[in-house]
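Module 6 notes. Inverse folding takes a fixed backbone as the condition and produces residue identities as the prediction. Think of it as a translation problem where the source language is geometry and the target language is the twenty amino acids. Below is one complete input and output pair. Work through it position by position during the lab.
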């Protein structure tokens, strides 16, 4: 029986595996639950961080698109302003030449020896895209391109009686209307 006592004593004196670890089934279940909760918290944090990053990317993308659109609008507006400024400069320059052209017309009309100059002048004006407004005697009066200085007669039809000063168009745009006497027939 001695052996039996030894066996019983050894059973009582040796701790089992659970006692060695200091954990029982409940403790093990608690550890697993804590691990699962920790993983869930990590996953939730990662999901929240990803959502925040996605929101920030969307915000920055929208900002970039607005900035690009603003730049394109600015570029188009600048180009348009350059063209407008260039047209104003050209029109102003041409308008300053008109009194000189008037003087040349009067000189050619007063001196027959200058008649060859008239053809050369017409050719140069055409090359510069500067054309005279039609205002010959007998042509129909058009208030859009003619300024009537004087009106004679009582009829219904208005025609040009005399051109006092030539009108001009530059690149198809009226720069100065022709000054004319109008006769009503």
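Target side of the pair, the amino acids:
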């Amino acid at each position: 029986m001695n052996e039996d006592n030894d066996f019983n004593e050894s059973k009582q004196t040796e701790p089992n595996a659970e006692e060695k670890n200091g954990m029982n089934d409940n403790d093990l279940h608690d550890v697993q639950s804590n691990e699962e909760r920790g993983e869930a918290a990590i996953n939730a944090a990662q999901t929240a961080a990803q959502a925040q990053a996605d929101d920030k990317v969307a915000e920055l993308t929208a900002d970039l698109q607005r900035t690009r659109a603003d730049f394109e609008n600015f570029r188009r507006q600048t180009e348009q302003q350059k063209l407008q400024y260039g047209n104003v400069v050209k029109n102003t320059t041409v308008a300053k030449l008109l009194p000189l052209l008037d003087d040349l017309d009067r000189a050619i009309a007063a001196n027959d020896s200058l008649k060859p100059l008239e053809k050369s002048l017409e050719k140069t004006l055409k090359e510069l895209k500067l054309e005279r407004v039609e205002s010959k005697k007998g042509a129909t009066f058009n208030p859009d391109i003619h300024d009537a200085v004087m009106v004679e007669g009582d009829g219904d039809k208005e025609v040009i009686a005399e051109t006092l000063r030539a009108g001009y168009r530059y690149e198809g745009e009226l720069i100065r209307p022709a000054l004319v006497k109008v006769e009503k027939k």
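Reference fact for the lab report: DSSP finds four helices and six strands in the chain.
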